[in-house]
Amino acid sequence: MSSFFQGLYGERVKDLRPSPIREMLHLVRRPGIISFAGGMPDPEAFPVDLFYQAAGIIKSQGKDVLQYGTTEGYAPLKDFLIQWTAPRMGRKLEHDEMLITAGSSQVSDLLCWALIDKDDLILIEEPSFLGVFLNMHNHGAKFLTVPCDDEGMMVDLIPEKVERAQREGKKVKLCYTIANFHNPLGTTLSLERRRKLIEYAHRYGFAIMEDDPYGYVRFEGEHLPTLFSLDDRGVVIYAGSFSKILAPGTRVGWCCGHKDIIRKMAIFKQGVDVCTSLVAQAMVYEYCRLGHLDSFLPKIIDHYRKKRDAMEDAMRRHLPLEKLHWVKPQGGYFYWVKMDGIDCDRLFQVAVDKQVAFVPGKAFYPNRDGGDQEIRLCYTFASPEQTDQGMRRLGEAMREMIR
User: Fold this and answer.
1) What sign does the dihedral 283-286-290-291 (CA atoms) show?
2) What pLDDT was estimated at residue 198?
3) pLDDT at 27 over 70
């Protein structure tokens, strides 16, 4: 029997694309499976006791924080973020240059509501984070993909791509990039390329969404300037999140940009969810006010540095190195492994039979035309012992396919 709603769906439902990672979770949740698939933080890194202390704000200010809040965000949290993010932003922001969101993923949604009409083009790294580009696709966007190397997006290819699109009468409105510890690539965009990307945005008139959920989780080396701090014309919208520096269950993020685009996004947010949970915002603020963000963040970073090192060591011990290439990430959550002559879909089936899972690379290509011999591995969730065992199993699966 067909659904009653079959004749009522809008045009966008006809080309609706679900997340392939969410669709495959039932496979990797089987007992005994060692999963490097989901990009999940380790619950052992959650500051449970410290965040419980922050819950005291409900007792002291419950009559305020249990009420509706302003769409733009809880003012004390914004005050904290304006101070705390100033070194990365290059200056202290004004209140009307910041919007508190339900995680950084909501930033892309609100930005699409404000900017994207059907068939507008978005410049995007290839591969990229599917959670965002699927949302952009469902808004009606098309993608102008830019390939990547070990230094991230190959930005020198942008002028030719944009000029060709403009000759064809198409609008390139936005560039989406994860400049630091890219998901899925693990790469970091070089300073020279950051400057060029800003230059091209100014020249061709497109905005940039700088998605930076992993930027504070740096294991070694110096922080590079954000695109936001390099931009003097207000074309960059910066998105940050507490998901990786506190816990994803808070569902609290923020974005910064010119007050005009922030205002438009806030108006759309009024209709989407009224405001980000004021209870969550208040608890996150109290956690920060008590000094826990600054005191506990180094422990999170050290925890994941050890996990990154454990995966690096296990990969080098167990995988067929002559057939593989990857970049050792300086932060974040992910390895991106390029394979020579190994099909990722077939490898996935063999690997799952051996009780280990990853995400096939095809899932991360916006136009679904690549990734046949690439895979993403997340090192944050499994224990070092599980990582070693999982890499041994994955190495066995790879060698079976090489024979």
Assistant:
1) positive
2) 98
3) no
